[in-house]
Automatic annotation (TrEMBL):
One of its GO terms (cellular component) is plasma membrane. One of its GO terms (molecular function) is heme binding. It is found in: Cell membrane. Belongs to the cytochrome b561 family. It comes from the Bacteria. This is Cytochrome b.
Length: 180
């Protein structure tokens, strides 16, 4: 399955770009949801929930792929502080991809709302009904989503730095088919 030590395996690359697209879409849907009071709000929520659960499932698969296929090493001449920042931000992204959907699901459970994925598929509650917990989880969901957005921007900036300024092959290791 592993194609070369200078690039991520195909499954990791496909999952990376698919999840990136879903997360970007989700952040805009989330903000659009809280900014609209018309019937569009209900429509956006009905997209937000299944998309969020899809991100959770894809992130779990991606984590398994990542643990089974170690990523290509960062360039040897990259300063240690940048290596540390890269590793820390990658694990933060994994953490947020798993925790934000779970907090969204727990929030709706705490509020006593059914978590519907489409018309007939209903997920079980994962938190007891509790109004105070609902309020805390709702704020937590929003703040973690904001942190995800900031981490996403830093990640994008780092990718462009590697691809356009250092030109060290790091960006290509996630795009594929080009050696350093
Ligand atoms: C990676 C996945 C997710 C991301 C990035 C995300 C992002 C967001 C954002 C940015 C908001 C707006 C926060 C605010 O400003 O108040 C939001 C609200 C919300 N999210 Fe998520 N979310 C995710 C997953 C989920 C899941 C899985 C569920 C439920 C199963 C969910 C349910 C909700 C609900 C109910 C709201 C509040 C809507 C409202 O009050 O109008 N989210 N989300």
């Amino acid at each position: 399955m592993k194609t070369s030590s200078t690039q991520f395996v195909l499954a990791a690359r496909v999952l990376h770009w698919l999840i990136a697209l879903l997360i970007l879409t989700m952040l805009f849907i989330g903000v659009g949801m809280v900014a609209s009071v018309s019937e569009r709000h209900e429509w956006l929520i009905s997209i937000h929930k299944p998309l969020g659960i899809s991100i959770l499932i894809l992130a779990i698969i991606r984590l398994i792929v990542r643990l089974r296929n170690p990523p290509p090493p960062l360039p040897a001449d990259l300063p240690p502080i940048q290596k540390l920042a890269a590793h820390a931000s990658h694990w933060l992204l994994y953490f947020l991809m798993l925790v934000i959907p779970l907090v969204g699901w727990a929030m709706l459970s705490a509020g006593g709302y059914p978590v519907m994925l489409g018309h007939s598929l209903r997920l079980p509650p994962i938190f007891p009904v509790n109004a105070a917990a609902f309020a805390i989880l709702r704020h937590t969901h929003a703040w973690l989503a904001m942190l995800l957005f900031l981490t996403f921007l830093a990640h994008l900036g780092a990718a462009l730095y590697h691809g356009l300024i250092r030109r060290d092959g790091v960006l290509w290791s996630m795009i594929g088919n080009r050696t350093r």
